[in-house]
Predict the structure of Pyroglutamyl-peptidase I.
Amino acid sequence: MDTKKTVIVTGFEPFGEHKVNASWIAVQELEKLSLGEDIHLLVKEIPVEYKAVSELLPSLWKQYQPELVVHVGVSGMATSVTLEQCGHNHGYNRLDNCDFCPNSQCCIDQGPDCIMSVIDMEAVCKKVNSSSMGVAFSVSKDAGRYLCDYTYYTSLYLGNRRCAFVHVPPLGKRHSAEDLGRALQAVILEMVQRLEDHMDHNQDQDRCQLGH
């Protein structure tokens, strides 16, 4: 019997000014490194399209029953590897790679405004920042109201909050692809370790208080 935990890690295809998307390059570097013998790592490249995300994510959660899903995106403004604490349901008016955005400008009709990951990103950040690996980590509560935030919220909703989102800076801005791969490996292993501790917590933290 296979007792390995399944962890899915996704990156995005190129879009806009990002002719090479650092998120997918970093995920491919992670795949080379692996997450160890006890974890079955699956990686997927996600289109920068609202409709594709809405169709793909339910099938990933249902087919693989993952312990954790970690989505990785690129942020042109990022100077550190940024751990996103929560996803937001409203405000999606920016066109995707197909020149489309949802008429409702939201992820899930009648879903909560904001869903917080079950994982304490501040605690993860503190732990990996103390590891002296040469990569800086930070925490954010605003994933940007584009495909990153849309994907994160949808996955948090589908996966009962067993999800994380990591923003990486563009390649060459401060870190190499190898640096970003090692950074992903460190944060994801820490997330998996903390996940079991948090699964017993009650559900009263589903909504984050914006601005806090």
In short: Strands lie at 5-12, 39-46, 68-74, 81-84, 86-88, 114-116, 137-140, 163-168. The radius of gyration is 16 Å. Residues 42 and 108 are 25 Å apart (CA to CA). The first strand starts at residue 5 and ends at 12.
